Amino acid sequence: MTGFGAMWQVASREIRERGRSKAYLIASTVTLLIVAAIVVLPSLLDDGVDEIPVGSLGDGNEVIIETAEELATADDEPGEPASVVYEVTEYETRGEAEAGLEAGEVDAVLVDGSEVIVQSNTGIGGNSTVGRLQRAAATVEIEMVVATEGQAAVDIIEILTSDPLETTSLSGDDEQTDEQTIIAYAGMIMLYVAILLYGTWILSGVTEEKANRVVEILLSSIRPWQILGGKILGIGLLAFAQVAAVLVVAFVGLQATGGIELPDLGPKVVINLLVWFILGFFIYAVLFGAAGSLVSRMEDAQSVALPMTMSAVAGFFVSVLALDDPTGTVAVVGTFVPVTAPFVVPLRSALDAIPLWQYGAAVVIALVSIAALTVAAGRIYAGGLLRFGTRVKLREAWRGGLE
Amino acid sequence: MLHVDDLHKSFGDIHALQGCSFQVAKGSMLGFLGPNGAGKTTAMRSIFRLINPDRGEVTWNGEPIRPDDLLRFGYMPEQRGLYPKMKARDQIAYFGRLHGMDKSAAIESAEQWLAVFDLEDRFDDPLESLSHGNQQRVQLAAALVHDPELLVLDEPFSGLDPIAVETMSNVLREQASRGKAVVFSSHQLDLVEDLCEDVAIINEGAVVVSGEVDQLKDAAPIRHLELDIDGDATELIDQLEGVISTEAKGDHLIAIISSETDIRGFIARAQEAGRLRHFSYTSPSLTDLFREAVK
Known about the structure:
heterodimer, A: about 400 residues, D-Maltodextrin-Binding Protein, domain 2, 2 domains, four-stranded mixed beta sheet, 4 strands, elongated, B: about 300 residues, alpha/beta, Rossmann fold, Alpha-Beta Plaits
């Protein structure tokens, strides 16, 4: 059997056994359910009509509430049901109105067309109903001033709240920037979570084989690199399957419910994330695998994961800095460091802030690192595997790899 | 033919092997004996290149062992190890596939071996649900599944009940008779004496005695003497020359004496001393040889 044949055997056992295990199936199902719930539930609960409960005390409130409704539904398609409806509760006394507010019956109470009472006006953005009523009241006043039909007043309000000046930014295509930043940031967080999560699978998979001593029989017939390589390949494929399933569920869910408008991702962003997920996964998987071979018990596995976890956290922070200054020194250095590149490069690329040569160099450095780390990790792995009991020192495993 | 030649291996200050040599021919079974910590496991691991010796080499058919050779060897390590949650048949078939078998052959062989060990109704049971003895049988099946030319078994009999010992013995005998080279370590010396033509005894990292059991016994400079007598046996023994060790249990006395001692006069004296109920003078047992070798 060729060397890769044995590696594939290890990988396919990993896929068959781990893929069928309760832990994997339950984790995958729960993740998918959560993703589906996040995507689908809001649009199921939301019937498309925003109902705003307001109270009315005294006279002169009707015109303001009607105007507020007109303003809110100005952009509605003709023939469709109104997107915003004000539900008005009439109060006889101020005391009743205050009790209604406290009971949460209404968001705000208009008094005589000149006052609005609310339970609280603090918090981010204040009370949005107050804002709507204020604008409506202002519109009514303008309406009285210009003494024309309601539509003209709406036009005036639109002009007042619009940004009539076109903005040009010297740093490029600004219309996309917000969207790009969100995509870049979301992609980076996904990579961070995925790399650490699946790296931990590798770690425990390696330690597990050492803990149940099956590793000695494996090593009696195949080489350490075949075991480590097969494990990374098998767990990697399971990881990709899980990520792909999550993305498909999220995408199909969003399409079906139309809940959120998907940003136009384009092939570049997708390929970019995919390339760096694969590169990042392999860089970290090799390191986690070598670390796993140093301990004989599952309880000790977390302690050897620290260097990798810290590297990923460092990569995360470098990326956050790069988000503010994607061409700064920190971002450029992070591009060329193998353990931070998987987080920094896709982010800079999504922001169109990385020259082609830097991107190419980062990919080459990552590939070379994977090769070099595989050789080094293979040696540590070989040296660590047959030393049972207490945690093996890195130096000891390194020297032992030659025995 | 497996040839282990003058292996030396140190781990820091511990000299695990200091000139360990033995050989196993195809179609023969070697009992590899030695006290705990003598270097048996280290020597066996060296065969599978799990340990690189500091000096000396291991050859198979006269050539240094290559990775491909390892696929034709079967190994049962002292530290038993299998996947606890994997089904018995899948597990054995997996090791078959790692040794280069195709899928159907691996499954077929796994089922055959499980049947040999009376586990035909446990194919789909996860390993952890089997008893200790049955797990050990699965472990042996994992070493045999790919029909290896060389079998190396570290303490295969430890922890087995008498019935399982018999099954295991029969399997090993059959493997040797089919032309396989078999080497196993054990502390059950009577079992080794029963099974093996050849033994190698290792002590402090070096093989101190090796060869055919019968020849070793004949050539040994000691004899095994046993007698039951009404009277004072110790006093009798004291008069005998070349006594190496004695052990008395009531009237029963066992002595290891030099093979050069003339015992004809001793028998006459014993008959005079009291009623002689039992007397035997034989070549030493393997246990006697072992004790002498590791003294």
